Amino acid sequence: MDSSQVPSKSCSICNEPTSLKCKSCSSSAYCSPKCQKEDWSLHKLLCSRLAAFSTPPGTNFRRAIYLPIHEKAPKFVWVPVEKSRLWDGEIQDDDDADFTEWLGERRFGFRMMKRNQVRNRELENEIQLTFKVTAYGSLGIPPLEVNECTGHVAKGKNISLWRGPILAMKMVGKDSELYGHIDMEDLRDLADFFTVTNAVMEM
Ligand SMILES: [Zn+2]
Ligand SMILES: [Zn+2]
């Protein structure tokens, strides 16, 4: 079997077919109580918060995961999106997201997660990480503060220090410019990502 073809409703931990769901959030699925237990220390950071984020405040809001700088636990947040427009106002098919409430006005950088290298699976829906970039080092601008949440979700196995707040949003499928709602199970892919991927260097 080609392990890169594992469907997304496979066990978050080991990719085997699932036989049980988390009773609390009814979202993450596992093959066994053993894998559920292995996921729990991460899963519990968001599990009880999903219920309050089941219904968007409006049709143009998408559920995202926010990783604050100085808090250990990530948060679900709503991010407004709208169809992008050409210079003449013509509406396009792809989405523009408004990150300012969570990331502020500074310049943004992006990183696409397409694959979970730790668990050897393709992501059915890509995850977009958005973070701040600064002209660090020039004009006396100090570096952004280290993001403690990334270290916590990666259990200290993050291979580099990410800085500033980070927002994770789920795309609809692959190579898509449409945003969907991020789910509980995406938290495992997110945590694994920091254990194998270097932070983008500030320029
Ligand atoms: Zn499993
Ligand atoms: Zn749960």
What report would you give on this structure?
It is a single chain. The protein has 203 residues and is α+β, with helices and mostly antiparallel strands. It has a domain at 56-196. The chain has four helices and nine strands, in the order ββαβββαββαββα. The termini are far apart. It binds zinc ion (2 copies). Residues 22, 24-25, 27-28, 43, 47, 184 line the site of one zinc ion.
Keywords for this structure?
disordered N terminus; 16% helix; binds zinc ion; alpha+beta; two-stranded antiparallel sheet
Strand and helix layout:
Layout: E1 20-21, E2 29-30, H1 33-43, E3 61-67, E4 75-85, E5 91-97, H2 100-103, E6 108-116, E7 121-132, H3 148-153, E8 166-171, E9 179-180, H4 186-196
Antiparallel strand pairs: 1-2, 3-4, 3-8, 4-5, 6-7, 7-8, 8-9
This protein binds zinc ion (ZN) (2 copies).
One zinc ion binds next to loops.
